[in-house]
Amino acid sequence: MQTRLFALDFDGVICDSALETGLSGWQVASQIWPDMPTQMPEQILSDFRVVRPVMETGFEAILICRLLFEGIATQLLIEDFAKQIEHILLRENLTVADLKKRFGEYRDNWINTDISSWIEMNPLYPGVKEFLQQIPLQQRFIITTKQERFVAEILSANQIDILPQQIYGLDRKLKKPQILEDLQQLHPTAAILFVEDRLPTLLDVIQTPSLSAIKLFFANWGYNTSADKKQALHSPRITTLETPSLHNLTH
User: Fold this and answer.
1) Which terminus of the chain faces fewer neighbouring Cβ atoms within 10 Å, N or C?
2) Residue 248 and residue 101: Cα distance in Å, rounded?
């Protein structure tokens, strides 16, 4: 039987990190903009969850929090995300590299000073632990825009083993189609099953001819909109998953 490799996104597939990402983004934003209160208002946290499906990388949480504080409508931010992010970067003379560094340092500090509360803010989705434990260790891969050390911390705290070289994170500075391409070359005889909650990422894979053999799964419990869910159902290449279970991936 053909070996199957399970290539799984992390945030929105394995881990519901929206609460921790929003709180971390707010704290870093309040360091950059002192007019923001230290405590994140409940309404902004709630709005952050609404906008979370269009966020791709953690550092963007800093800018989302600032824009929400300034009163931008969630719908406008969702519909015009890239332009709004670019605009605030230019307006405030900020660099992506610096924001990534600040975001990572804030998380590191939180982990070092109170790891139990940090883990608590990053719960696994129901059923995910059992799902991962059914996959043989050599066949578990994580493909994420999160920094690798944070993925390792959360999995370890939940008693889930992962080989460090099988976490492909932000540190590698590679787009997900490129990572899948590399995996395919490293394991030419294996079937690769890619589970992702962001529809644009799955569409990028579909538009990459060399990845036509990759089996694509859309995790609809993650960070996606109702429009994404509808579109995924109409794509012949994408199988929609309602819950994380190996049975859903193999039948």
Assistant:
1) N
2) 38
